[in-house]
Amino acid sequence: MNKVLIADDEAEVVELVKLYLEKDGFEVFSAGDGMTALGIVETEKLDCAILDVMMPELNGFQLLKKIREKSDIPVIMLTARTSSSDKVLGLDLGADDYVAKPFDGLELCARVKANIRRYTSNSKDNTPAILKAGPLELDAEKCQLFKNGRQIEITSTEFRVLQLFMANPSRVFTKAQISAAGWNEDSYVEDNSIMVTLSKLRSKLGGEGWIKNIRGLGYRMEIQDE
Question: What is the pLDDT of residues 119-151, one digit of tens each?
């Protein structure tokens, strides 16, 4: 039975989400504030977390950041804040999906299932545990990136996008393919979010040359000797 956390300071929302998820066969853990939710994350082996942004003690973004320090489980942001800047921030911190309030319970359950399915599929694929490209080394099991032996901090979204490129050197990927690999193939990701992620990856890798824009086609990784 998959375990899902719902963290929201609105008791009515928690009960509604819990009702839908339990009806679909999930074991549900609930929290009304960020610190309680963090305690559950640290003690339970969760398969997915649904986080509200506006929570006391630790807000959703702060909680997401702490989760990403320890785990790459799917995280869905559930919030009334729907501005592009909020979405970009959440996705950049490593959120896998974004659902706006008011929401449809059946759709939310479908998104939970899709995210868990993608996460499980990625965990069982045939990608080598360690990918190497020039001075880069990507450890898929530990979700860590090294360049010339020195670790580079990256978010879970950046990790998944880089894994796509490093597992397929010189191959050109469209924005849709990058979105499906880095976020969730069943959700819409704005072009701006993809561009921000690629820009930050280039910066962390050491320059524009690492990920080239192939006009009219997409993007590909080009190994740099450094």
Answer: 776 655 555 678 888 899 998 777 889 999 999
User: Would you state the structure tokens that stand for residue 134, as one six-digit string?
Assistant: 């020039």
H or E stretch covering 192: helix 191-205
Taking CA 206 as the corner, what is the angle to CA 201 and CA 212, rounded to the nearest 5 degrees? Answer: 60
The one-letter amino acid code at 131 reads L
Segment 34-63 shows an average pLDDT of 93
Please give the full DSSP string across 100-161, using - where no structure is assigned: ESS--HHHHHHHHHHHHHHHHHHHTS---SEEEETTEEEETTTTEEEETTEEE---HHHHHH
- Name which of 2, 20, 4, 11 is nearest 103 in CA terms: 20
Rounded distance between C-alpha atoms, residue 81 and residue 76, angstroms: 13
What residue ranges define each of the domains in the chain, with the CATH number in brackets? 3-123 (3.40.50.2300), 130-221 (1.10.10.10)
What is the C-alpha to C-alpha distance for residues 186 and 55, in angstroms, rounded to an integer? Answer: 27
Q: Report d(CA 118, CA 124) in Å as an integer.
A: 10
Read off the DSSP letter of residue 182.
H
Return mean pLDDT, the chain: 86
| Tokens 């930050």 belong to residue | 200
Cβ atoms of 156 and 68 within 8 Å: the answer is yes
> Strands 75-79 and 48-51: what pairing?
parallel
Q: Could you tell me the two tokens for 214?
A: 């192939």
Cβ-based neighbours of 153, under 8 Å, separated by 6 or more: 204
pTM score above 0.70: no
Task: Give Cα 177 distance to the centre of its chain.
Answer: 15
